[in-house]
Amino acid sequence: MTYTPMSYRDHPMPTFSIPGPAGSLHVVDLREESPEPSSALPMVFVHGMVGHTGFWNAALAACADRRRAVAVDLRGHGNSSAPGNGDYSVAGCASDVLAVVDALALGPIVLVGHIYGTLVTIDAAVDRPDLVRRLILVDPPFDCTRVSDEVRNSQFLPFLAALETDKWHDIVEKAFEQALLGSPTGAAASVRARFATMPRDAMLSMYRSMFAYPSSATLERYLAAPGASAHAILAPANAWPNSLHKLVPALTSSLVPNVGHWIMLDAPDRFVAALEQAAAL
């Protein structure tokens, strides 16, 4: 593990390179700067599809005044290695997160995920409920396994089939543009730039895994563990009949108004406030 020490206040944030299950994992690790030791649990951040650790910069800097704050580049994202076997599944990415947490000897922790990363954090939490004390799910996708056969056959399967054609980029770009509705220009540009770097095989692997992942049932299994808790921070568009906060009564939630799905980029200050409140519940 190679560490580059520097103050995150005036310089790029301190980073680690950690061996993971599918290659090298890039990690940002901030320690709280208060002269008094904090009793707050470490917080680990997991970005979503096409994201990277930089999406969490405002939250990392804010949290580090009170607790240790760590962010992970998932396999094939940011500065982490792409998996040789093309596995970007929820379970595969969850193994990356747990590898980082174990390597840094963190725990118990608060685990924060965004969109696809929420599924990754749920999977990591149900595997290690002793390690994950609280989940904070930032605008999680709806449970794709709870749609009707008609929706699956008319929308999901054709979408996956289109990803195997030369038109895949246009198809996924339309999906991302829909998700970016409500995002300010700068935030949308950041997401588009990261999307442009992702290969088709990575996108296909993640969408296949997301469509097949039973997120509500898995979250309920985690919440059945002693001491487990979860909270969702939502954008206004997250109001589908099979949204997680509607399917899982034990999942509390709060809403950040006037944002798109990338809440931490769209409204950093309001996101940090919602995050602090969620962590304190």
- Give me the CATH architecture, please: 3-Layer(aba) Sandwich
* Morphology call: globular
Helix % is: 40-55%
User: Numbering strands along the chain, what is their spatial order in the largest sheet?
Assistant: 1-2-3-5-4-6-7-8-9
Would you tell me the structural class of the helices and strands? Answer: alpha/beta
Describe the main β-sheet briefly: 9 strands, mixed
Give the number of helices.
11
Give the ordered list of helices and strands. Answer: EEEEHEHEHEHHHHHEHEHH
Low-confidence spans: 1-11
Oligomerization: single chain
CATH superfamily: Alpha/Beta hydrolase fold, catalytic domain
Report Rg: 18 Å
Structural notes for this entry:
Residues 1-11 have low confidence and may be disordered. This protein has a single domain (2-280), classed as Alpha/Beta hydrolase fold, catalytic domain (Rossmann fold, 3-Layer(aba) Sandwich). The protein is globular, with a radius of gyration of 18 Å. It has eleven helices and nine strands. The protein has a nine-stranded mixed sheet, sandwiched between helices. Helix 2 (90-103) packs across helix 3 and helix 3 crosses helix 8 (215-223). Strand 4 (43-46), helix 1 (57-63) and strand 5 (69-72) form a beta-alpha-beta unit. By secondary structure, it is of the alpha/beta class. The longest helix has 15 residues, at 149-163.
